[in-house]
Structure formats: C-alpha cells, structure tokens
Design brief:
With 442 residues, this protein is α/β, with parallel strands linked by helices. 25% of the residues lie in helices and 17% in strands. The protein has a 5-stranded parallel β-sheet with strand order 3-2-1-7-16, covered by helices on one side.
C-alpha cells in the first residue's frame, strides 16, 4: 500500500532552539510534525557548554511562536529582555518549558540520532516521480519513519574542524585525541582539574577561543603554574581584539581589550602564523604541535577552530551547496564572514534556503555551513519562513524580517567576570544598537 506524502508529518531534526522554534511554528500552523533529538533532552549540544554566557540578550533569544505557546500554557515568566543568559539559562528558563507545552510535549523523540535521510525508492540519480515520494528517515537504531518534509536543525556542534592547518587532520591528530579538548571547556568549573597548574594551548582565533583564553587567564590568577598558549594560523589578531577604546561599540572593544591585555602582559603567550602539520605525543606525557621547524608543547590542546555541517546523512538528496561555505549557494554571499559580521547578515528565508530537493531545508547553524556568523534571531526567522512555505503561505514565507544587533559574537564570557550584565551592555554596548532589516524575498 503506497503512502501519500501529504498524509505524513514534517520531521524536524534537532530539539535545540531553532528546531523547537520550527516545531512551535508548525504547531501554530496546524501541521503535523515530529522532532527527532539525538540526545537525552532538549538542546543536548548546548548543555555541553551551559556555563558559557551568550552575547545576545534575551530579547534576541526567544522565538515569537515559541513565546506565544509559552504564554498560552501559563506558568512561564519571560526573562528580562536585557539580561544575558548562559547556555544553561537558555535551556532551563526557555527550552525545557517550551518542550513541555501541550503542543510540543508528545512530539519530541529523544535519543533518536538520524543516520540518513533519503526518499522512498529514490537515490540521488532517479528523477521521474521523485517529488511525490515521501522522505525516508533512518535512525541509528535501524528504525525508520516517513515524512512529508524535513527541517534539518541538527546544528554543527558534533562536527568540529580539524587542528590541521590544511583542513584535514594533522598527522598524528587522531592518536593524540586524549590530549585534545573540544571547544568551550568548563575551565573554571567541571573541567578545572584538567587545566589548573598545567600548560594549555588554545587553537583558534574566534570568540570560542577567546572565551576559553579569558577563563584560563582567571584560572591562572587562582592557581600558580597555570600556563596559557594561544595558537593561531594568521598573523594579525585585530579582528579578534576589535577596536579597543576606539571601537564604535564599547562592549565589543572592552572584550578585545581584555584579551589583548593578557597577551601584552605575557600571561597569554601568542604564537601566530602557526599552521599545524602534525601532533605528536612526548615522552613525558605531553603533546607537541608541529609547524615546520616550530614546536608548541602543552598538556592539553583546546580545539577552537570552528565547526562544519554534516551533509553525509543527506548524501542521497539533491543539494545545491556553495563549494566554499557548504551553505546553499544562494545564501553564501549573504553570510560570507569575509564580508559580514553576525549582525550585518541580510534578511533571508525559504528562497535562499531551498535546494533542488523540494521539501528539504537546513535551518539554523547548519544552514550557514562553515560560516561563523550565525545568530539565534536569524535562525528563528529562517524557521518561520520555511514553515510558512510548508503551509503554503508564500506571502508570509517571503516577507522576511530581521531585527538584529549591529554586531554579534558567540559568547560574552570575554567580559570582566566582575561586571554585571548591565555593565557588559548586552549585545552591542551599553545601549544595544539594533539594525532593522526587511526583505521581500523573491
């Protein structure tokens, strides 16, 4: 007996902020859906960095449809819009209550990692009748389910970039895995013993790296013998430091100034123009990073080199991917980190997210490929636009609007740990500067 795709639910992959936002919009539109979460609870990836404070205040962190569901359910107190949440706050004060709303509570399947997404009876080559075939989602336990459409909000957290400077693992990187920590370790909490009184090399020039460096700086003040090395591929850290006192956004300048001060005073040793070729374990139980004749020795290496999307699970779908970023080809020029910061990304929605495979959309961080310019607010608008299109409301789908901070980064642990949220100034300084962006799509 054949199954019509129109009789099937929309499958959302990932129960993080963007996946649950998509679910909230699907619920409001009256579309049937299932959310598949690989972890044991909502936002399992964020739970691994729950100690990190976001750089965007609450006003940018709550989806509109999700807010309405929470208000309808009652018993939820919306956080102060000007406060900066931690990852844990985002989960506990927003995502967990959202997942418990009547519209979502029985729609989320936990411990359900997706192994593959294809179409029933169709590999990537076959065309005739393809659009009428349901999507087939196979889970890691071998079970399968069918879907009318797929909204892929799986994120990129599980796919960190390699330490190797050429985009592939450095020689010996896999063998030395026990010495390599993933990005955003809880230096001052859960992982303290791993770093206290030891030598750590942080590899990467983004804000995840800076967050860890500043936490290590605090730890070094508390525990003598804690040594910090910052390893970067480039030769100019101006982008990481920002404009200091001359920065038009004071909070951003303050963040970079604090990191720059650690380097200037020698508390952080900066090793620049270092493209890692090999990783070797030493005889005394340490690890050595190698670039030509240069060496960096440490007890632990923190890989803060960024992330990349996993397109392998959708390898049998027809995707139009930008060859550089790994986003859709239409989205790539709008999010290119060489041209845009988080807050200058133009409005975009279903048209820019569409692939040649009708009904499949990647949203959220995964939609950006390797670009690090993603903000939650952007992902929420993506989810709203895509769901409107799935509901057949193309006017709403193409009426894309963004209300973003003028700039944005991954976290605000860069701020002085003694500062209050008000002193840190939210997203973009003491009075966050918003850039209202409106687009009509195509």
């Amino acid at each position: 007996m054949s199954v019509s795709a129109s009789d099937l639910p929309v499958v959302v992959i990932g129960a993080g902020p963007i996946g649950l936002a998509a679910a909230a919009h699907l619920a409001e539109r009256g579309l049937d859906f299932i959310v598949l979460e690989s972890g044991p609870s909502v936002a399992a990836a964020i739970d691994e960095w729950r100690h990190v404070k976001l750089f965007s205040p609450w006003r940018y962190d709550i989806d509109s449809a999700a807010r309405r569901l929470l208000q309808q359910a009652g018993g939820w107190s919306e956080p102060d819009p000007g406060k900066l949440p931690t990852g844990g706050d985002l989960i506990d004060a927003y995502l967990v209550p959202l997942a418990k709303t009547p519209q979502l509570s029985d729609k989320i399947r936990y411990n359900s990692p997706v192994q593959a997404v294809t179409r029933v009876g169709f590999d990537r080559l076959r065309t005739a009748g393809r659009e009428d075939a349901p999507f087939l989602i196979r889970l890691a336990d071998g079970s399968e389910l069918l879907a009318a459409a797929v909204v892929d909000a799986a994120g990129t957290w599980r796919r960190p970039n390699e330490l190797g400077g050429s985009g592939i693992p450095a020689r010996g990187e896999a063998v030395a895995a026990a010495h390599i920590a993933r990005a955003l370790p809880d230096v001052l909490g859960r992982d303290r013993e791993r770093f206290a009184g030891r030598r750590t090399a942080v590899v990467g020039a983004g804000h995840s790296a800076a967050t860890t460096l500043l936490d290590l700086g605090d730890l070094a003040e508390q525990v003598p013998g804690t040594e910090i090395v910052w390893v970067v591929r480039g030769s100019d850290q101006a982008r990481t430091y920002g404009g200091g006192e001359a920065d038009e956004l004071p909070a951003r300048g303050a963040l970079g100034s604090r990191l720059q001060n650690l380097v200037r005073t020698g508390r952080v040793e900066l090793v620049s123009s270092f493209r890692i070729e090999a990783v070797e374990q030493t005889g005394d139980g340490r690890v050595e990073l190698i670039a030509g004749e240069r060496r960096v020795v440490a007890d632990t290496v923190v890989n803060s080199t960024g992330f990349r999307p996993d397109h392998d699970i959708v390898g049998e779908l027809r995707l139009d991917l930008d060859p550089i970023l790994g986003s859709t080809r239409a989205l790539a020029p709008l999010i290119d980190p060489n041209q845009h910061s988080c807050g200058t990304v133009p409005p975009h929605g279903v048209d820019e997210l569409a692939h040649p495979e009708p009904g499949y959309y990647a949203v959220g961080a995964k939609s950006y490929g390797r670009a690090p310019t993603f903000l939650l607010a952007t992902g929420y608008e993506q989810a709203r636009s895509v769901v409107a299109a799935l509901a057949g409301d193309w006017a709403a789908a193409r009426d894309v609007q963004l209300d973003l901070p003028e700039t944005g980064v991954c976290s605000s642990n860069l701020t002085d740990s003694s500062s209050s949220d008000e002193a840190a100034g939210g997203c973009c300084g003491p009075a966050p500067i918003a850039l209202r962006q409106v687009g009509a799509g195509r």
